[in-house]
Write a structure and sequence with these properties.
Number of helices: 2
Strand order of the largest sheet: 1-2-3-6-13-12-9
Oligomer: single chain
Radius of gyration: 23 Å
Number of strands: 30
Structural class: mainly beta
Strand content: over 45%
């Protein structure tokens, strides 16, 4: 499986928490994603706008995510709403094999999830778990429920349901800012004997929750800890600013790629094995999976700069380019970049595609 989390949203149709996993009985992979929805919108697969602002922290297969209502664009005030909820979606329920709540099987939907229980879903090659942590409960009708919607399995974590209210009024009613936080974890099925054992492990983690108010600023501190991992964050709820993230290794910055096959830095010189990228001293990365004959280099500079990618059997040299990628695929070269200057020089290969 692959699992990624954004520390902030990039647009109202972006995926801030996303998992892809294998499904041996299906032709396509399984997908898990999240949205913060208002007015019970449901526009269909792939077109579900996110009405929330998001922040989070990730540690291996674990994550804490926090949503609030999205602010208006420019001076435009968002319209009053009649509901607000965090929604976690397992696309295509036909691939879901087992649902547990509190370690017990759920066979009939819809199902109201008792507060404090862990939800575990087994599908394809993975087990995934959700623990709702803390949320604004604006009114009496704020359940957590599992249901099937348009062929997907959906977990709704309500924060508000009632008469239409303005965003400002909802924030004021919540005592600072509407918010909804949850813990999410995904694991390969081979790691646990049963879904119940996975549920037990996830439920064993200790949740740390603290809300403090100083000088008209409210800070939410959230953490999850168990024997093999820890993660947490501090969030200024008043300004919706992420103040701190941590794992068992200490505080996190915003780390760049660092692995045996992918590396990123701002030094202007990135090397993996027998491949080297030389570029401007802004963010640049190199992907070099061994034994494939394929190398991918990228530069994310605000200003164009010279770039050279050297591989065992050749090289690509560009006088200057802005943000873009250079791909060497067994001697075939593809370049996709903005602000490209000059004619690329390819040695030991051929230029297959050039987009600028």
């Amino acid at each position: 499986y692959s699992f990624g989390l954004a520390t902030r949203e990039y647009g109202n149709q972006s995926n801030v928490l996303l998992t892809h996993y294998l499904r041996p009985t299906h032709d396509t992979p399984g997908v898990i994603y999240t949205r913060f929805l208002t007015d019970d919108k449901w526009f269909g697969k792939g077109a579900l706008r996110d009405d929330g602002q998001f922040t989070g922290v990730k540690n291996a297969g674990s994550a804490i995510g926090v949503y609030t209502l999205r602010a208006g664009f420019g001076r435009r005030k968002p319209k009053p709403i009649s509901s607000a909820k965090t929604t976690i979606i397992w696309a295509d329920r036909s691939g879901v094999e087992e649902i547990l709540v509190g370690g017990k099987p759920v066979n009939d939907l819809p199902f109201i999830v008792p507060e404090g229980e862990t939800i575990v879903i087994t599908a394809g090659s993975v087990m995934s778990a959700v623990r709702p942590l803390v949320r604004s409960k604006l009114g009496k009708n704020t359940p957590i429920r599992l249901e099937e919607r348009a062929g997907d399995l959906v977990l709704d974590i309500d924060t508000y349901r009632g008469e239409k209210m303005a965003h400002d009024a909802l924030h004021e009613t919540s005592g600072g800012r509407v918010h909804s936080a949850f813990y999410f974890e995904v694991a390969d099925r081979s790691e646990f004997a049963t879904a119940r054992s996975f549920s037990k492990v996830v439920s064993s983690g200790q949740v740390q929750l603290d809300t403090t108010t100083n000088d008209s600023t409210t800070t939410l501190s959230l953490g999850y800890t168990r024997e093999d991992r820890a993660l947490g964050l501090d969030l200024d709820l008043t300004k919706w600013e992420l103040k701190r993230r941590w794992t068992e290794s200490g505080d996190l910055g915003f780390p760049m790629l660092e692995s045996s096959i992918a590396r990123q830095n701002r030094d202007g010189h990135v090397k993996i094995g027998d491949a080297t990228l030389i570029c401007g001293k802004e963010a640049g990365w190199l992907f070099a999976p061994p034994g494939t004959g394929k190398y991918i280099a990228a530069y994310h500079g605000l200003k164009p700069a010279p770039l050279k990618l050297t591989v065992p059997n050749g090289s690509i040299e560009i006088s200057a380019m802005g943000t873009g990628t250079v791909v060497w695929n067994n001697g075939e070269v593809t370049i996709d970049a903005i602000d490209l200057e000059g004619e690329p020089i390819v040695i030991g290969g051929t230029l297959k595609s050039l987009t600028y």
